[in-house]
Amino acid sequence: MVELGRLDLYIYAALLSSYLCQPRQGHLEAIYFMNGYLKTHDHSNMVFNSNYINWKEEDFPKHDWTDFYPDAIDEKPINVPEPREMPVQINMFVDASHAHNKVTRQSHTGVLIYLNMAPIIWYSKAQRNVKTSTFGAEFVELKIGTELVKSLRYNYR
Cα(2)–Cα(62) distance, rounded to whole angstroms? Predict the structure, then answer.
C-alpha cells in the first residue's frame, strides 16, 4: 500500500516490518488497526500538481557562509545539455522521531521530496545508530535527505 502512495501508513509499515521474524499478538492487532484505517479512508488520493510552492522570502533569512565554505561550488555533471523546459522546484521535508523504537531506542527518519507540488520520493527507515540527543537524530536525517536531493538534482540535470 505504501508503494502505491499511502504515505500515511509508511512509518507504521516500516516499524512493523522490523518484527517479521518474531511477530507478537500486539503486532497483529496493529495490522488490524491499519486495515481498519484503510477501510475508513478508502477515498484518499495522491495529487500530482505542477504548480510551484510560493515560499515567502522573509521566512528564510539570508546568511553569508563564504567564511565557513570558501571553496563551495555547485557540482554539475560534465557536458550538461541546456534546459529546454521550465525549471522545477525541489522541496524537501524531513523529520526524525528520537528513540521512537522502545525496544532498541533507535530513531526513525522520514523524508518527503517534492518536485513542484508533486511528491516524488518518500523515505522512511530506522536509523542504524542510537543517538543520545534529538539533535543527533535530526542531523542524521538531514544528511540522508541532502544526499537524496543531490542525487535527484544530478539525475534531473
Answer: 37
Report the sign of the C-alpha dihedral through residues 23, 29, 34, 38, in that order: positive
Name the pTM for this structure. Answer: 0.70
Is 119 in the same domain as 139? yes
Cell of residue 101, nine digits:
523504537
Same structural domain for residues 52 and 42? no
| pLDDT (tens digit per residue) in 39-85 | 888 777 777 788 898 888 888 888 888 899 998 887 777 888 888 88
Pair 18, 82 in one domain = no
DSSP string for 103-139: TT---EEEEEEEETBEEEEEEEEE-SSPPSSHHHHHH
Among 51-65, 83-97, 120-134, the minimum mean pLDDT is found in 120-134
pLDDT at position 4: 63
Dist CA 11 CA 152 (whole Å): 23
Structural domain that includes position 80: 47-156
Q: How far apart are CA 109 and CA 104, in angstroms?
A: 15
Structural domains in the chain (count):
2
